[in-house]
Design goal:
The relative contact order is 0.23. Strands 3-4-5-2-6-7-1-8 form an eight-stranded mixed β-sheet. With about 190 residues, it is α/β, with parallel strands linked by helices. Helix 2 crosses helix 3. Helix content is about 30%, strand content about 25%. It has one domain: 3-Layer(aba) Sandwich (Rossmann fold). A hairpin with an 8-residue loop joins strand 3 and strand 4. The protein binds adenosine-5'-diphosphate and magnesium ion (MG). Magnesium ion (MG) binds next to helix 3.
Length: about 190
């Protein structure tokens, strides 16, 4: 039963393979359906890995028009409003790519984003790693092909472990209704 305990040890971590932009958006929607105000999602990935498309999916789960969700070029923080069914909570979409110093970070307005009134999704979170709350869902994305991406989820804290467990359980129960095939491999 060594295999069982190995799997238990990595139970909190999970990865999926996306084979298209649409699959990444669909995964964002499934994740978004489990998120609520006060949650924090940190995205760690290079250019073009799909951070913004994943965020589009998350926003769609709250009734936000995906066309409105784009990489904020000069605006570091975009704020959207969830629809009525989702209590019109604020959805903060942050892109920290341009941040180079702690002084710059201090001017961005992250305090509002992290105050807990809304859902926060932060691209280029590595720019602020030391300043962000320990409790969060970290998502790592990487290119594995022209239209393929590996998406790894690392929950930090019980709240996010529960969310990842729910995603895993849904994928295991309904493998044919999930557009991305989950890997059952442990990650570490
Ligand atoms: N499986 C995939 N998931 C997400 N994006 C993909 C995928 N395959 C190709 N793409 C393309 O990669 C780019 C991702 O862009 P974007 O979401 O803005 O990335 P990032 O925000 O990480 O820089 C888009 O042009 C998208 O069409
Ligand atoms: Mg982006």
């Amino acid at each position: 039963m060594a295999g069982m305990s190995e799997r238990d040890a990595s139970a909190a971590l999970w990865e999926i393979h996306s084979r298209s932009e649409a699959e990444t958006i669909a995964f964002g929607q499934r994740l978004g359906a489990l998120l609520s105000a006060g949650d924090l999602v940190l995205l760690f990935a290079p250019f073009g890995a799909g951070k913004t498309h994943l965020t589009k999916g998350i926003g769609m789960a709250f009734g936000v028009d995906a066309a409105d969700i784009n990489s904020p070029s000069f605006v570091l923080i975009n704020e959207y409003e969830a629809d009525r069914a989702h209590q019109r909570i604020p959805i903060y979409h942050v892109d920290l790519y341009r941040i180079e110093t702690p002084e710059e970070l201090a001017t961005v307005g992250l305090d509002d984003v992290l105050a807990g009134h809304g859902l926060a999704v932060i691209e280029w979170a590595e720019r602020a790693a030391a300043w962000l709350p320990h409790e969060h869902l970290a998502i790592f994305m990487q290119h594995t092909g022209a239209t393929e991406r590996l998406i790894r989820l690392a929950p930090h804290g019980a709240r996010y472990e529960g969310i990842v467990a729910a995603l895993r359980a849904a994928a295991a129960l309904f493998p044919n209704t999930t557009s991305s095939r989950p890997s059952e491999r442990g990650l570490e």
